[in-house]
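Homework help thread (please don't just give me the answer)

Our assignment gives two proteins as sequence + structure token strings and asks us to describe the second one. The first is just a warm-up. Here they are:
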Amino acid sequence: ALLTMKATVLATFFGVFLTCTYTAKEAPKKTKKAKLYVPQIDCDVKAGKIINPEFIAKCPPGCQDVKYRVYGTDIYASFSSVCNAAIHSGIIDNTGGKILVQKVAGHSGYRGSFSNGVRSLSLPRWRESFLVSEGKPRKGVTYPSTLEYSPSKSTAVKSGNVNVPTGDAVHKEYQTTPVPTPATQMATTTPTPTTTTTDPSTTTPAATRTTAAAAKTRPGLHRVRDMAFRGTSTSASNRNILRHSTGVQRQDPVANFQRAAGSPAHLAMETDSWKPGQSLFDTGFSSKEEFNPKPLEPISQGNQNCKVDLSFLMDGSWSIGKRRFQLQKRFLGNVAQALSIGSAGPLMGIVQYGDDPSTEFNLKTYANSKDLRNAIEKIQQKGGLSNVGKALSFVNKNFFLDANGNRGGAPNVVVVMVDGWPTDRVEEASRLARESGINIFFVTVEAAAQSEKQNVIEPNFVDKVLMCRTNGFYSINVPSWFSLHKAVQPLVKRVCDTDRLACSKTCLNSADIGFVIDGSSSVGTGNFRTVLQFVANISKEFEISDTDTRIGAVQYTYEQRLEFSFDKHSTKQDVLNAIKRISYWSGGTSTGAAISYASEQLFSKSKPNKRKIMILITDGRSYDDVSMPAMAAHQNGVIAYSVGVAWAAPDELEAIASDPAKEHSFFVDEFDHLYRYVNQLIQNICTEFNSQPRN
């Protein structure tokens, strides 16, 4: 019995032992069998968007695309697309697959390379990096089954004078010293802007640029900007420029937008003056209306087959004499009658010149021939020399304005009455007027008197100044004032022949102009408004409508945003208001990508009969290549102008600009000096236009 009891106890003990052993072995076996759930991510997800420091994720097929940007080689900036970086590194191919991502510290000098069909770009510095490898879990590491993303929207938290956004924002590092030291780095954040393109699929990812690992410098400019404050505050004290060569801190100047001293007085266009205390948009965006007497007679529709805006330059010099001056007035009255003045037909104003020109009345003063003839009869002779050149400059700058009744869609025509010969130079003033789109006719009467010949500066001025030398179409020579009446019908027929007015299709009404605007962090809010004023001052010089010049705009950082397309706004005021509404973005500088984007989103939709003009404004070196996108744009007929500010790279400006580069690229050392090139840029556009063959 004792033996039987012992055997039973041993059997029971052995059974319990086997059960415990089996259970202990089963537990790890079950753990090993537990499968890890791998979350899937989209192709455009950037490492910086995912908060988890280490994770395994699955990439879908089709991530090998240029719009999913990658920065770096082996070590990637967290601004990169995770999946496209994995393709670049060879971990997966375009069919997708699992990847392991490990976040690491920020890196300097991310190296760009082309690998596995993906172009990875270089980057000077970024706040965070990541490594990508095969999607196998590391021993002892627990991986999340659900990834944690940073919020998609951001809110601004006001901190002192600096608005610090939070949320879906990538931190930026700034330095105010040329040598990067961690102690001097300041972290801020920038909100991700809303993309406003009409085709969301073409919008590339949002981006922010780290702008001051080392200060961007130009040869001879020993300056470093306080990037952090310039990018986030509009106060003058926060927009300082440090001159290390002198140790002097210079306050940002008041935006006093005035013509540069010594700038040529003969330039065709004037920019508005900015005055201290005045809003950047108080000038340049609207025209001041002039008070003019209302017509005495009912408004006439006029000859609708002759819709032109006419300015007669009336010779009021002493050389013409009183009797011939009366004959001239009679001639002008007969022309007004023959034209059939009216709101839907020709409109006519008169400028009298002698030593100096002055407007007798403008285009909207009289709206019928009868009142106009009566007004002409009351004009008194001014006297003085025959300064035709000065009169043409005056008309070019002051006469054909919206406030004076200029209608935009009607050709601008100037008829110059000359008794004998001008007493100043006419060629340059005529060239500038032509380049502004003005058709110039000359009615010359008699030859210079013997006493006048000593004052004649350009004996063959008619041959020099005529726009289109088409068998004398733009010139009428009358041998005597007493036979001037015979020229009424020939002149009226010519000015009304709008099909033959070669200048009716002018540099100011025949282009699609796309502005490509750098919105990177280094620009700063205040300077960005200065750039917009520059864009507005250029735009307002053009005749804007559906059938004339059209304006479009793109803003870029690392990504691009279509602010408005060519067909969005059809009036000048609407365009200027749209420019005013553009909000500062802030971020990096991918100029090459911006050129490609503008080519696709703006200029591919340009009308066949329009010249395609791109005006790109940037303040720094691009993080991607600009030469290939610029070359592609040039080959597609885009005329490119580049405007660089401060730290813009001269070699990139030249690569962007059309040939010859010296006529298509400009540089200023400060944003407040941009206004200096408004006139020059428009003049170059018009010079190029007038050098091309006419249709």
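The one we have to describe:
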Amino acid sequence: MSKITTELLLERAVPRSTRLRKIETLNLSKLQLKTGDLDPRLFSRLRHLQKLDLSDNLLDKFPNSLTLPDLRVLNCNNNKLEDVTALKQFPLLEELTYENNVYLTLNDDYKVMFLLQNLRLLNGKDITKLANHVRRVNSRKLTSKVTAHWEKFFRDQLPEKYTPEQVKSIKKKFLKSVQTNVVYGPSSLSEFTRWRVKMIAEEFLAYSLGLELNSDSEPEEKTDENEEESTESPREAAEDVAQVGHIYDPLVTVTPSKRKRNHSKSSPGNKRSKTRANTEEEAAEDVSAEPLHFLQCHSKGNSREDFKTQLWSCVFEPVLDSGARKDPIVSSSRTVATCGGESVCLIDCETGTVLKKYKVATEEFFSVAWTTLTMVISDSRKKALNVLAAAGRRGIVKLIHVAADFCYGEIKAHKKPIATVCFSPTQETHLFTASYDKRIALWDIGIPDCDYNFKASQLLVLETASIPLRIALVPTCPEQYLLAGCENGCFAWNIKLDKGQKSRPFEAIFQFPDEESVTTSHRVDGLAFLNDDVVVSKSSKPGCIYLWSWSRSFDAKGKGCQRTMSAVILAELEWSTTDMSYLTLSTCPAREYVFCGDEKGSVWMYNLSSHSSAWGSAKGKRSERRISPTQILKWPELRVNGEQPPEILVNNVVADPAFTYLVVLTSVNITAIWKKS
């Protein structure tokens, strides 16, 4: 039965009303509403509704026929919206807010600006000027490019007299080609551009050429609200990869080839361009790693056509007993856990074999982390086992005993998605979960008995001012301080458990240089320690990664909470000038390397061993010049079924502790494994 009734609507009207047709303002916030609760038949009676508040609910989309012809103001904050295109049914909408919907991006902002011609305010900001540009200039440029693409590549393919089969074939080829090859604007808007290009191309075919456009798209796959879990055997997992693409797979031909170097000369006035050009040229000559495998093992429904599933996190398995390993090729593990979409995979980096695969049909995994627990088995003997924690969109942590192919438990940690998880290096059962509910929780996951019974408990809650994206425990005192990169800054907490306070505010917020002065308000989407003291963080400042000193920045003797402290910058690393967020970084402390992917599929590698000793001294000075990457690994020109995959973003890149393998996770459902030569 729907939560919304006539009586509820009359009661929640502002002011209360006796007739649905008289309601102009309606507050339906904080009712735990889901999409199915919005009954179009009931809403169609709200003919004069102008203001609607649906904030703080559980909506993942809008029904297509709510029929609110006079709606002017809509508040959808704090929901689970994944798509905005249904909002076009409200053509008179002037003010729209949908903040804290974690799956909506800048691309969705541009979509609503195009679809809603009367929109003036979006998330509290006046977008009139930008929206006019999107509707006019952007559309004009894309239309010109789409038309030119047809004229150059497809016009001569259509005979004067054509059959319906020929129309369907050329339409399919043209739409696919034009979305791949027509590029305009920044890469951060590529999804919006493809969406508009497809729309313009369909209109072009329909109106300019008179080609009928019957949708060939398949209906969206429906999933049961009840979760479906499965753990696949190595053979089943291998069959999945065979279906959806390995570099050696005969069904999906993936051909790596070296990207051609650009020999164009840099402008003498552009020192930055010249520096980067030189770096890339050196990188091409000094190849210290080679591509080993390209896997497509996280596909939804094992579809080999899936180039949309985003891959987010990977971590190498700890070695239980390195002496017992038959293959002495590495002193650290060559097995890596990766996650993205509905699955978690365990991959042998040397062979490219997917050893195990764990799937939850209703989940989207964002983060994985390993710990080694000591379990008491039936005869009272102790046995070490590696446990993998996996979490994501549903706010639930899955605990998987990988060797036994068994998910033995779960922790319902948060009501909103979990962005990242990590285990304490000193307390094997202590797990931190950072969530979109603006909280970081510390859990004791317990140790399972021989029947896998366990008891988890929450030990601590850290309150954040904005969504936490990355967390790191301070290596010199991992039981006392935690550092977090958040949507609105970099924060530190005292996490010592002997303090009585179970819920704690942050103890410090760090300020960094920006374009003009200093700021504490910036997105920190990359955070890791290079050694015991040096922190590496990436923020919203374009083209820059900061290295700074924890001990010289954090005043442990100061009193009080929520203090502002200046980060003592040791150096800046030169990186891509993209404004794309959430391309995170990682470090390899044993080899003193920093890694960060970019918006073009490349991996920027920095060997900082020659700098660390200077930074370690008490009077260590800041490096005057930005440090260029030691090497940039270019993404090979892969071809899948004869075509290149769409735009490739490197969401994450991680090396094993010995830096033998480098695992690259992308936005197009491809895991690339490089091996250091």
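TA reply:
I won't write it for you, but here's a hint about the kind of observation we're looking for: The mean pLDDT is 83.
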